[in-house]
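Cross-check.
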Amino acid sequence: MIQDPQEVVIQEAGTLQLPVSLLVQAGLNPGEKVMAVSTEDGKVVLRRLADAVDDLLSGRPL
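Predicted model, tokenized:
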């Protein structure tokens, strides 16, 4: 399901805050550990840490 995009601002310190509604749409919960990866095409992807580790251990790419 594709949802409306959400605008976020990168702060001077290099941090940003994601709206909880965006996390909920992605099935992520506050406090859950995620891995952030930048792709060759300029996207930043958040993955559940456990899912990313499972993929790496199984020989699948991030």
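The longest strand covers residues 34-38. Residues 26-57 form one domain. Passed to J.P. for a second look.
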